[in-house]
Amino acid sequence: MNPDKSDRLKHKKLFLFDIDGTLAVGNTLYEGSAELLQHISGIGGKSYFITNNSTRSAMDYVERFRRVFGLETRSEQFITSGYMTLRFLKEHYAEGKIFVLGTASFLAELRRNGLHVTEEALEDIDCVVAAYDSELTYHKLIQVCRVLSTTKAPFYATNPDLCCPIEFGFVPDCGAICNMITDSTGRKPVYLGKPSRDVVDLCLTRSGFTREETLVVGDRLYTDIACGINGEVDTCVLFTGEAKPEDMADTPYPADYCFSNVKKLLQHCTEAL
Question: Which of 13, 137, 235, 261 has the fewest CB atoms within 10 Å, i.e. the most exposed one?
């Protein structure tokens, strides 16, 4: 790390963390994660969690962090791709009929917020939304392909991630599901979560910190690091998830900082003071 970058690191106060593959995997919190969050709080900073996992609401994450990780958080700290999608749909399709491919929890969250969502392939659909669906069935795939093939309804998706970290490795994420749908229908979605700069902008608005004080931390280049680049803030990749050191040689999404794990990031943050 060159001196200029080290100097920038010590001024960071707003940390925007990916969760899966960055701070934790499954029910396991990585060594150093709790200590880094405590350090950020201790220097008067704030931690936000920007995840493309749309299967849980912000309150679900608050409960999960408390029960599984022993960490106290607040719902406003969680910016999920599901939440970004909800904001978009309420702004543009508040009165529309929305076909949704997603978990029962995701559909329930949209309905609780007053949106008219359905899983039936009707003719009067105003838009189609696909999310990471851990309850995916072939029947659901048939229904979404029917709507996209027989109507001109716009196609949106929560996030472009191809795989989701799990204890034994990876499973297909929303991007992989959408690729199946695109290969079958020729329709490509507009993604609403990371890497959209809207995620960074929302965190800046909520926190009151500046772009210069902000650092995006993640394990995936084309979502996490691209999100930070799009949002014009510094970025840090951790090699605990999808990205590998050899990926840095030829990527359109170069991170400003690269560390092997969250413990190493903590070490450099404390040394920078």
Answer: 137
Write the CB contacts of 176 (distance below 8 Å, at least 6 apart in sequence).
162, 163
Q: Is 235 within 8 Å of 247 (Cβ atoms)?
A: no
pLDDT at 272: 59
Tally the residues of the chain: 273
Which ranges in 69-133 belong to alpha helices (H)? 81-92, 104-112
* 110-116 contacts at long range (C-beta below 8 A, 24 or more positions apart): 110/86, 113/86, 114/90, 115/86, 115/89, 115/90
Beta strands 214-218 and 46-51: pairing type? unpaired
Residues 6+ apart with CB under 8 A from 37: 47, 71
Q: Which residues contact 75 (CB under 8 A, 6 or more apart)?
A: 58, 59, 61, 62
Contacts of 27 (CB under 8 A, 6+ apart): 68, 167
How many C-beta atoms surround the C-beta of residue 55 within 10 A? 23
The residue to which tokens 């799009």 are assigned: 230
| Cβ count near 178 (within 10 Å) | 27
The answer to whether the beta carbons of residues 128 and 148 sit under 8 Å apart is yes
pLDDT score of 32 = 98
Question: Exposure pattern of 210-224 as b/e (b: 16+ CB <10 Å)?
Answer: eeebbbbbbbbbbbb
Bond preceding residue 195 cis, omega within 30 of 0 = yes
Separation CA 202–CA 215 (nearest Å): 14
Among all chains, which residue has been given the structure tokens 């990749």? 237
- Look at residue 1 and tell me whether its pLDDT is greater than 80: no
pTM (two decimals): 0.88
Closest CA to 174 of 227, 131, 224: 131
The phi, psi pair for 170, rounded to 5°, reads -140, 155
